[in-house]
Design goal:
The chain is of the alpha+beta class. Helices cover about 30% and strands about 30% of the residues.
Length: about 400
């Protein structure tokens, strides 16, 4: 819902037998201020949960949000040091302390739910619970309540989130927000703070769709990357292009019916490009094979977990290779004429590592060009692969081959 909604009364409705009536009253009730600075028993929490259904995700998010809000209040009333121990209470005990709550900025997909919850706790009951738990309360000068839409304390992962854009390519077409996209669904189902790096997948609402699409993500469009990063209050964006690899059957043909130059096993070829400030700073490539008989959903989840683990264990600490290295090489590129050359030149110039292209010679069949690039040769190869070009050969005879 676009406006804030308010639910009053302990138990919150999902535990009460008259849940529908409570929700109708919630919509009709006038919104209460989200978090008054003089109310030490109020806290605003941003919740984010993923489950097998949005209803389950919402209940999980609400329960987790109430517990985190109560812990924020415990910390506030005990001096605001951030070192107070969480109360050991059951979910029911926590919800019984809530007088009312407000909801704002709800967003949801089929499996994910996010929102800003403002919880108003019962002062007398909460105070007694804290005293029973041995919490020393200092109400004379408590720290101010958190502003609406902010989570008390540091963000999960200890800093700004890293935006993940899971682009999935099957055949010639690539998708980001469109369905089906099993690659994005697998990433959306992972906990955002599940590793050392706080990876977050945009929900794909109207603002996200307007900011960037699959083609702009693949090409490293500076404006689009900056826009999606701004929406998530992030500095870094990871474009994760997963290309379906059908594999070969027993006849030696790939499972789509054509000859396949790659490996025999079906799976995903994943290229991860890391952008900071909308500028490419790192590129990594990986291949994940599907196991015999493995369900598609299980395979995509396993592939996402594998990439996330690689990011946690090494990629997040990688040096900014593109910023510190420069190179150039002379390449022969087959063409079919002037129009084909102009299209190829524009595609090459649009790649993030390419800094300059000098034409050494040009005929109707071939262009000899000097490509000046930032980063490593492997990073250039990975970037060329995103526009279906394969860098072959070696010094001094490099060639560009077009891949299907």
């Amino acid at each position: 819902m676009s406006a804030k909604s308010l639910v009053r009364g302990g138990g919150w409705g999902w535990r009460a037998p008259f849940a529908l009536a409570l929700l109708l009253l919630a919509v009709a009730a006038p919104p209460r201020p989200a978090a008054a600075d003089d109310d030490p028993y109020t806290a605003t929490i941003t919740v984010d949960a993923t489950s097998d259904s949005v209803a389950t995700a919402r209940d999980m998010a609400r329960a987790d949000g109430a517990r985190r809000a109560l812990n924020a209040i415990v910390d506030r009333l005990s001096g605001g040091t951030g070192k107070s121990k969480p109360l050991k209470l059951s979910d029911n005990q926590v919800t019984d302390l809530v007088a009312s709550f407000e909801v704002a900025n709800e967003k949801m997909t089929a499996v994910r739910y996010t929102a800003d919850y403002t919880f108003h706790f019962r002062p007398a009951e909460t105070k007694r619970t804290l005293q029973s738990a041995g919490v020393a309360i200092n109400e004379a000068n408590p720290p101010a309540a958190s502003p609406p839409g902010q989570t008390p304390g540091p963000a999960p992962g200890g800093g700004k989130p890293v935006v993940v854009l899971p682009v999935y390519q099957s055949g010639a077409s690539a998708v980001l927000w469109e369905e089906p996209n099993p690659w994005r669904q697998a990433w959306s189902q992972r906990p955002a703070g599940g590793g050392a790096t706080y990876l977050t997948v945009p929900l794909g609402d109207a603002g996200d769709v307007a900011a960037i699409d699959a083609d702009k993500a693949r090409s490293g469009d500076v404006g689009a990357l900056a826009a999606i990063a701004k929406l998530a209050s992030a500095d870094e964006v990871l474009v994760m292009l997963a290309v379906q690899r059908p594999g070969k059957d027993q006849t030696g043909k790939d499972q789509t019916g054509g000859d396949k130059p790659g490996g025999d096993k079906p799976g995903l070829d994943v290229t991860v490009r890391r952008y900071r400030g909308a500028q490419l700073v790192d590129v990594h490539a990986d291949s994940i094979d599907a196991n015999p008989g493995e369900k598609d959903a299980d395979f995509f989840r396993r592939a996402a977990d594998a990439i996330a683990a690689d990011i946690d264990t090494g990629w997040k600490n990688a040096k900014d290779n593109l910023a510190g290295q420069q190179g150039s090489l002379v390449v022969a590129a087959p063409i079919t004429g002037l129009d084909d050359w102009l299209k190829l030149r524009d595609r090459l110039a649009g790649l993030p590592p390419v800094r300059k292209i000098d034409v050494k010679s040009l005929s109707r069949q071939e262009a000899s060009i000097d490509i000046h690039y930032a980063g490593t040769l492997d990073q250039l190869k990975a970037s060329l692969a995103t526009i279906k070009l394969d860098l072959q050969g070696g010094d001094p005879n490099w060639r560009l081959a077009r891949t299907p």
